[in-house]
Structure formats: structure tokens, C-alpha cells
Design goal:
The protein is an alpha+beta fold. The protein has five helices and four strands.
Length: 150
């Protein structure tokens, strides 16, 4: 289990240091901004999507390694997914990070998101891990509301 935790930590650190899809999408169809007042994490999600598919997704922001890695992996995993698939993945992610420590997870189904399995052991870090996901949902809702984890 220690080797797996080390691998997960490496994935988070890699995405935290070198986030993927870290840019603004010019003329994005939708966007939303999110803020975690507890630790100062900020994220803005940009989307281009049709009625059924997330064609393009990117983010900008600043924050801790968990927050930036979560946003980075979110953009990689959700690009090209249907809106329904994106919601299902988000729900699985929330269940994992808010679940009980030591719970069984389906690492194959979660892919790189499994790297966040240990977050449930640190309740104050759940908001860091979920900020980008809440913000992505707000962007999909396209209501212009800013997201706060408080």
C-alpha cells in the first residue's frame, strides 16, 4: 500500500507543479470562478461545450498542490466526455474524497482521480480537492454565480 500512496503523491505533486490545460480559453462558451477562503485557493474554469459534450476545458488559478492537481486532472479526464459522463465522474470523485478513510475504491474506474483517495483522511483538504469540481458544475450551470467552499 505504501508504494501505491507514493505513486498517488507523485501524481498530485506532478500535476500541482506542472498543471495541464492551465490557460484561458478565448471566447469560452461558459466559465465560472471559485474561491476557497480557508486557504486562499482560487480557480476559474473555462468550457466550450455543445448540448451534449465538453469539447474543450481549461483552468487558471492559484492554490495548494491538491487544488491545482485536482483542477489539472479534472480538465484531462472530462475533455471530450458527455455532460452526463462528467456528472457521473464528479459524483464518484465526491463520494471518494468525502467517504470513510480506508474505503474500497475502484482505481481502474477512477483513473488518475484515485490519487485523491487519501484526502478523506484530512477533512480540511476536501475543500481544496473539490473546489475545481464545484466550479466546473457552476460553469455548466452557466448562471454567473461565483463559487465558494464556505
Amino acid at each position: 500500500m505504501s508504494d501505491l500512496r507514493d505513486l498517488y503523491q507523485e501524481v498530485i505533486l506532478d500535476h500541482g507543479r506542472k498543471p495541464r490545460n492551465f490557460r484561458e480559453i478565448e471566447n469560452a462558451d461558459r466559465n465560472a470562478a471559485g474561491f476557497n477562503p480557508l486557504c486562499g485557493d482560487k480557480v476559474k474554469i473555462f468550457l466550450n461545450c455543445d448540448d451534449e459534450t465538453l469539447d474543450e476545458i481549461a483552468f487558471q488559478g492559484s492554490g495548494c498542490a491538491i487544488s491545482m492537481a485536482s483542477a489539472s486532472i479534472l480538465t484531462q479526464i472530462l475533455k471530450g466526455k458527455s455532460l452526463k459522463e462528467a456528472e457521473e465522474i464528479a459524483s464518484r470523485f465526491y463520494a471518494m474524497v468525502t467517504g470513510e478513510p480506508g474505503q474500497e475504491i475502484d482505481a481502474e474506474r477512477l483513473g488518475k482521480l484515485a490519487a485523491f483517495a487519501g484526502v478523506c483522511e484530512f477533512p480540511n483538504r476536501v475543500k481544496c480537492a473539490t473546489l475545481a469540481w464545484h466550479t466546473m458544475r457552476a460553469a455548466l450551470d452557466d448562471n454567473g454565480d461565483a463559487v465558494s467552499t464556505e
